[in-house]
Design goal:
Blueprint lengths: L12 E5 L2 H4 L12 H5 L18 H15 L3 E5 L2 H4 L9 H16 L3 E7 L5 H5 L6 H18 L5 E6 L1 H10 L13 H22 L4 E7 L2 E4 L4 H23 L5 H7 L2 H7 L4 H4 L5 E5 L3 E5 L9 E3 L11 E3 L15 H13 L5 E5 L16 H19 L4 E7 L18 E4 L4 E4 L1 H11 L6
Parallel strand pairs: 1-2, 1-12, 2-3, 3-4, 4-5, 5-7, 6-8, 7-11, 11-12
Antiparallel strand pairs: 8-10, 9-10, 13-14
Helix pairs in contact: 3-5, 7-9, 8-9, 14-15, 15-16
Bound molecules: 5-hydroxymethyl-3,4-dihydroxypiperidine.
Length: about 450
Amino acid sequence: MTAHRGDFPADFAWGTATASYQIEGAPDVDGKGPSIWDTFTRVPGAIADGRTGDVADDHYRRFREDVAIMADLGVNSYRFSIAWSRIQADGTGPVNPAGIAFYRTLAEELLGRGITPYATLYHWDLPQALEDRGGWLERDTAERFGEYAGLVASELGDVVGDWITLNEPWCSSFLSYAGGIHAPGRTVGAHAARAAHHLLLGHGRAVPAIRAASPEAKVGITLNLYSMRAASDSAADRDAERRIDGLVNRFFLQPVLTGGYPQDVLADLGETEWFAEHATRDAADVATPIDFLGINYYSRHVVADPPIGAEVVGEPAGLTYPGSESVLFVDTGAPRTAMGWPIHPEGMVDVLEMAHAYRPDLPLYITENGSAYPDTVVDGEVEDEARRRYLEQHVMACSAALQQGLPLKGYFAWTLMDNFEWAWGYSRRFGLVHVDYSTQKRTLKRSGTWFRSFLTGSGDVR
Ligand code: IFM
């Protein structure tokens, strides 16, 4: 079976996705303030290769070249993120006109090429000044985010019609405040759930603020969802599935789509009391109806909670999963990407079904999907067959989802070009375009030419 663009609705959004800190560079020009990633990348040992996003893909200066690459690929959509501290250096106060100008010019360049901009307002780069005041553990950060969202929408509402409030709030709460793996690198255990609530409250503040500033806007949020399986039918493994599914999927889907947090997860976390006192009153705000849900899908978790001494091969959940640290992510032997993430294209349909069950009327987008491999340029070419296959298999999964009647409206490949992969630095490459970081030369990989053939209907797409 081969994927054909013609099998998809004509108005299906086909795009690539990126994020500000991962590609822009220019951390302190034109009035930008420091973000938590500018700080965290300077912590010894925090980043695998010891590098920072100071230059990254130099996209801040080369964005026209990058938009031209997208136009050549034939995408009709592009998802990028706005660096909050370019707009408000310390996360408060009036907008910085130079910051707005950068994103306005980018959006205009995209529109000029027939590419629809989808802007994410928060892809993890919190202004450092707000972290200094407690970051997402403080309720006030949610209020500041709502203000920022309204300001940006009132400045850019004429060139951006599709808005995503937050990218992957699980990462900016549990990975960042419990696991300590991402900025700000804190390890506050179950209190990370409070950061998650403040992020979602920020989303709840941002949705009406964007609509007030730009009444035609379509507003959504992007969650990273995982297909989930218990390793066996044992009660312990099924409970492991309930716990991990609860922490990564239900803890975000339920408050946003139907309202209120899953009580079993709050009990696992020991956070029932705090949430009753501080979060229950926000339930309706967090569940403010949205226009679409973005889903980032990469992999499936097979989980177990084996008795001590049992021989199960896997990675312990650890600090990032407070209350469920000993759950194992089991190695089933499935093929993996260079991130160590098992490849399960059919799991993409699982997560679409999962979200659809909460709100059957809600349009869904795959706002990220992609794979890392150790690419090399040989004679000017990058033969990344494994990524090409991954991409094709997941495009086919989109087709299967549509055939099932799921309201899927678009697919964004992660990512346009190799970039700063957070705690992995530049040691993991996800791009359809290879970037030589010493020269900034961009080279379309084989996966990119496949995507171009698929999108433009030219040539052999296999
Ligand atoms: O690079 C990230 C992106 O910023 C968020 N989603 C997952 C990608 C791959 O790890």
